[in-house]
Amino acid sequence: MITNKDLKLCNEQIFSYSAAYQVPFYGREKAIRQMQEHIENLKQGEVIIVSKPLGTGKTFLVNHLINQRKLDVPVGASFLTVRGIAERPEVLDEFPADILIVDEADIKTPIKKLIKGLECLADHLERKNRRAILLGDFSLNNDNISGCLKNKVLLTEFEEIDRAFLKGVLEQRFNHFLSLDDFQIEEVMEPELLDYMTPEWMRPVNNFRGMFSLMQQIVADEKYVRYNSERAFLKVGMFHDFLCKDDNQDLDDNQNRFLDLLRERLKQEFPKGNGITRGFTTEFLYEIANTGGISIKKQEFIEDILEPFAAANLLVSVGIPRYGDGSSVFVRRPEPYLPSLTLLLSVS
């Protein structure tokens, strides 16, 4: 039996997404095989592109290859970042391996530095005949951002986080940190909660960082974990209560109203997310606001409600970051949008 004490002692480790708590690598056999093939065949001047959402395990995958000596980079070497390259291009010459490892080609990097850093990398690869692995989000699918990289090799195999994958990762972590034998995740988590975390439609953007962060917050508050005396057990209802306890404190009136309307629409038309396929367009979400009595122009809705909701992880962008049509404004989180895990659980 896992007790509250066990979970509280280990919550920072079990649900951590920090390099400070290393666990054995789990899964992604196809991604590993393809990465090895790409590395073995990588020509001078070429770059392997790994374009996946934040928190899905891209850096963990490359670190695994390094630790297993399947990538000739010193263990513990700090990866370059696109922002760091933009600010100080000479760091490219200082990286201690022939294959450069460059991280954070994503929406966390200001767009001007993202473009400048990639241009510096492209120029360096061409002039020095070096090779690279570049890790980033869907920004790398925009040729206006990454088009400067002429010789790209894409990682197409990168297993998405489905129920079996998440279950295996969690069980491995409990086994590793609590030294358990034959542990099953159902001992501490109801099956419905696993289902909420891994619906089919969420797989393209599902990420460990978001799930672990949420579980870490729940476990840190004893009020939401206690069940059957001292036994620790996580249920959907606990997450709902936790997410709604401080609800709406940082939202203005229109944002609060829209959140209520969106939750009601999800509850009526997409219970537990059922029926969601490719996500919601801006028009669909704007229609919810209009029919719900929020009088606001479309552009104001985008700037004052939609973009803040995406930034606050209530909605998750599935689009490719881009410049707005006929505009110099860079759209970091474009349509279509999916409900985030936190939004979905707050409706449960």
Describe this structure in words.
- The protein is an alpha/beta fold.
- The protein contains 15 helices and 9 strands.
- The chain is globular, with a radius of gyration of 22 Å.
- The two termini are 27 Å apart.
- Strands 2-3-4-1-5 form a 5-stranded parallel β-sheet, sandwiched between helices.
- The mean pLDDT is 89.
- Helix content is 46%, strand content 9%.
In short:
The protein has 348 residues and is α/β, with parallel strands linked by helices. The protein has helices at 4-14, 29-41, 58-67, 82-87, 91-94, 111-128, 143-146, 163-178, 191-197, 208-220, 236-245, 253-269, 282-291, 298-311, 341-347, and strands spanning 47-51, 80-81, 99-105, 131-136, 152-154, 315-317, 322-323, 330-331, 337-339.
Cα separation of the termini: 27 Å
Q: Write down the Rg.
A: 22 Å
Please state how the strands of the largest beta sheet are arranged side by side. Answer: 2-3-4-1-5
**H-E string:** HHEHEHHEHEHEHHHHHHHEEEEH
Number of helices: 15
Specify the overall morphology: globular
Structural class: alpha/beta
Low-confidence stretches: none
* Helix percent band: 40-55%
Strand tally, please?
9
Largest sheet: 5 strands, parallel
Strand content: 5-15%
Average residue-wise pLDDT: 89
Keyword list:
348 residues; five-stranded parallel β-sheet; 15 helices
